Amino acid sequence: MSTTITRDLLKAKIVTDDEVSAAVDVFMTDLTTRLFRFKSGHSLDLANAVRVHQPAKAAVAHPDRNEKFRRGMVRTAILMGCIEAP
Fold first, then answer.
1. What share of the chain is helix, strand, coil (3-state, %, to 5)?
2. Whose CA is closest to 58, among 43, 42, 76, 80?
3. Which of 18, 25, 45, 73 could bridge across to 56 with cysteines, CB 3.0–4.6 Å?
4. pTM of structure
């Protein structure tokens, strides 16, 4: 059984770029946010996605990093995050 990541759903147009951006916004507002549900019903544990993606984890841990860089790292972590099916 293969693991589905957010990027797969984005490529398949099951989730939108706007939804991924919304997930980034939610996480950046509260770094402990766990559940993010996409309109398709798929969900992602945002905090875990960032925790397991070392560059994103490091970026959010260092407030001296600029906001654009931190958001980009979080977006990458979300795109690489393992999705739960509806």
1. 55, 10, 35
2. 76
3. 73
4. 0.94
For residue 73 the two structure tokens come to 């790292």
Alpha carbon distance 50, 14 (integer Å): 22
From CA 8, how far away is CA 40, in angstroms rounded? 13
Q: Which domain holds residue 22?
A: 6-80
Report the Cα–Cα distance between both ends of the chain, in Å, rounded: 16
Q: Is residue 86 part of a domain?
A: no
Residue among 9, 5, 12, 43 nearest 26 (CA): 43
- What the block records as the tokens of 36 is 């993010």
In 1-86, which ranges are continuous DSSP H helix? 6-11, 17-29, 46-52, 54-61, 67-80
Question: Helix (H, G, I), strand (E, B), or coil: what is residue 86?
Answer: coil
